[in-house]
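Sanity check. The docking grid for zinc ion depends on where the pocket ends up, so I'm generating a full predicted complex first rather than guessing from homology. Inputs follow.
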Amino acid sequence: MPLKSFDEYVALAEQAHGHICAGQILGLRMALYGLKLLDLDDPLGRHRKRLVTFIEIDRCATDAIPVVTGCRLGKRALKFRDFGKVAATFCDVETDRAVRLVAREDSKQRAREMFPEIADKNAQQMRAYRELPDDALFTAQWVRVKLGPEEFPGYHAPRAVCAECGEGINFKREVQRDGRVLCKACAGERYYDPL
Ligand SMILES: [Zn+2]
Ligand SMILES: [Zn+2]
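Predicted complex below; grid placement will be based on this.
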């Protein structure tokens, strides 16, 4: 199953995200550029399981990326690092190559210059993000991503149990604190306050 046409991806992204928007176009372009740089043209077929994607923001573009790559959170192939940046790193785990793409700050400006006649900003950006070349939309950087075996789907290891709350912990996410095994929440990273 090789890559689809851009319009087919747009239709799939609209389904996945609930509406079509400039962020969807940008996310699709980002994923396609990442695959191109890694020479992977069959992410849902022949190259399945070779790709892990790190995403640095939880916005519109994020939903478009799995549409192209097939990398999903529930398959452990999509990793979310909340840095608040429109950026993603595409890792080929077979060749150990990874490329990080960041959306360029000037792309909105480029869209204004390209289509000044389109008043609606979203429509203007959707048009421009379809047509601008990859390197006008993104800055690419080859990087190294260290992925331990516990990062991959199918990793099996004994579950740990938190000495404080008694909850089970998978994938080596436990921490050692003063000789005790704790979950991250009990070790101080709790994002909620028990009532
Ligand atoms: Zn959106
Ligand atoms: Zn705990």
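Relevant for the grid: Residues 162, 164-165, 167, 182-183, 185-186 surround zinc ion (ligand 2) (CB under 6 Å).
Also worth noting: The beta strands are 51-55, 78-80, 87-92, 97-103, 138-143, 160-161, 168-169, 175-177, 180-182.
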